[in-house]
Amino acid sequence: MMEIQQVRAFLTVAEELHFGRAAERLGVLQPPLSRTIRALEDDLGVTLFQRTTRNVKLSPAGEALVEPARKMLEYQSLALDSVQRAATGETGRISFGFARSSSRTLAAGLVTASRRLNPGIVFSLESNVFAEEGLARLIDGTLDLALVRWDRQPPGMTGRPVMIERLCAALPEDHRLARRSSIRVEDLADEEFITLPEHPSSTLRENSMRLCHDAGFTPRLAQAAPDSQTIGALVASGLGVSITFDSVSANTREAGTVAVPLDIPQDPSTLYLAHLSDHAKPSLEAVLALAEEVLPTVA
């Protein structure tokens, strides 16, 4: 197998066609250079140079080797550059999970800014990742970064708050409560509700059900819808109402709907940009540093 040192020596001699000048260029003595070339010829089983006392010229085999040898040095240089850029965080692949209905705008802002500043970092985006799933996948390594909610910070996890979310009611624009500045959950007792399907990683549906029960009624479910966009369309058509986050409403609001804040004794929800504390990934460090500016910490 050809070694890079042998390839470099061969090309220098091929360019100079003089062992003395080639040795001077390489910063070595001529005898070791001659031995390197002879060892390469022995390894390949061919003569690379035709030598006389007066001159040196390439053999047919040597001429055939010149271009491949140059490519080998180019590839070595590319390999070294790629490794060094990866080690400094200039290149890499980041798996980024988020819930598209609530946090896609935040995700888009970070990915776009990273592309401009660090074009060597490539994102793999997953836009249907809810809180519990996101945390589990950060732990098992299938995600590097996620926008998630939690009530208590999981061990080994680092997260910075980047958005505060409050619950609101999505109503048809001609609804009797649509012009209120805020409403109580009990004001919705006679309504039919449109919700997301039950999902073990999504807390929004369960939150809505609990709020209704705490307000003294069991919500009547008109329809389960697969996503927030569909819920918005169904609300606009007058099928029912929905409880959602204000961030979801802002990102997916359908024409013909309004979002009215809920007057509830419940703390707002916090969305965190989360990752493993001991990730040891330079490209992720570069993205996190950029995120400090793109997605500033909220109180």
Features:
three-stranded antiparallel β-sheet, single chain, five-stranded mixed β-sheet, D-Maltodextrin-Binding Protein, domain 2, alpha/beta, 12 strands, 44% helix, 299 residues
Structural account:
The protein has 299 residues and is of the alpha/beta class. The protein folds into three domains: 84 residues, Winged helix-like DNA-binding domain superfamily/Winged helix DNA-binding domain (Arc Repressor Mutant, subunit A); 99 residues, Periplasmic binding protein-like II (D-Maltodextrin-Binding Protein, domain 2, 3-Layer(aba) Sandwich), CATH 3.40.190; 95 residues, Periplasmic binding protein-like II (D-Maltodextrin-Binding Protein, domain 2). Helix content is 44%, strand content 21%. The chain is built from ten helices and twelve strands. Strands 4-3-5-12-6 form a five-stranded mixed β-sheet, sandwiched between helices. Strands 10-7-11 form a three-stranded antiparallel β-sheet. Strand 3, helix 5 and strand 4 form a beta-alpha-beta unit. Helix 1 crosses helix 4.
